[in-house]
Write a structure and sequence with these properties.
By secondary structure, the chain is mainly alpha-helical. The protein is built from ten helices and two strands; from the N terminus they run αββααααααααα.
């Protein structure tokens, strides 16, 4: 499961990185627009400054998408492993028990009833729906809260990741764009391509370290209650 997590993250982060490198080349003028004129004669044009602002702002949408997709996949991986190993409710750590109960409260009882055969095992995933996990609210604080809820580590190397502090900027700009509070030009005018690349670097390094924490969590079965001895 962890290999799938890493593979998905690697592919998504490559997409984001290519985009930000493209932005830098546009800003520096090393990449220009080539347009066909009359008689198929090519004409080189400088990038419009307003368009460049829009493209920069779009980078925040790509970054936030990476953050939310990564965290959603992480939580789904936890539930997938609980399901595949047939872990019962009594065996999971107290924090996870609370998550399971919160999930059940959101579900229609009739739907839950029809999906449960062995209640002690099926109850864990019966209320889980990955679409409910996050909705434009992910930043470093939310990830730390999520880590506490599930019992995995949120610790990272601050010198390399800033402990996810840049995620607040990414989230705020994404939400301002998504809700029409600010225009793309307003968001894009305040950051240079180099500043955006630095934000991208810290966000990707932060997510990589969170993924490593999840690998340890799943490999060590830290989702289990250490005080409970499995009978099978």
């Amino acid at each position: 499961m962890t290999s799938v997590l890493i593979q998905d993250f690697t592919e998504r982060s490559k997409e984001v990185s290519k985009y930000f490198i493209f932005l830098k080349s546009l800003e520096q003028g090393t990449t220009k627009l080539s347009m066909n004129g009359k008689g198929n004669n090519s004409k080189i044009k400088e990038i419009d400054p307003e368009l460049l602002k829009t493209l920069k702002a779009s980078g925040f949408l790509l970054l936030y998408n990476l953050v939310e997709a990564t965290m959603r996949n992480i939580i789904e991986a936890i539930f997938d492993q609980l399901r595949s190993e047939g872990i019962s409710y009594d065996e999971i750590r107290p924090e996870l028990k609370k998550v399971v109960l919160k999930n059940l409260k959101k579900r229609n009882p009739d739907e839950v009833f029809s999906s449960i055969a062995a209640i002690s095992v099926d109850i864990i995933t019966a209320g889980f729906d990955k679409k409910d996990l996050f909705s434009g609210n992910l930043d470093g604080k939310k990830i730390r809260e999520t880590a506490a809820e599930y019992g995995f580590s949120h610790l990272t190397d601050h010198t390399k990741t800033g402990n996810g502090s840049d995620l607040l900027t990414v989230k705020a700009n994404r939400n301002d764009l998504a809700h029409g509070i600010k225009s793309f030009a307003e968001i894009g005018r305040d950051k240079t391509a180099d500043e955006l690349l630095e934000i991208r670097n810290k966000v990707i390094r932060y997510l990589k370290q969170i993924l490593k924490n999840i690998e340890t969590y799943l490999d060590n079965k830290d989702y289990l209650d250490a005080s409970v001895v499995r009978t099978s």
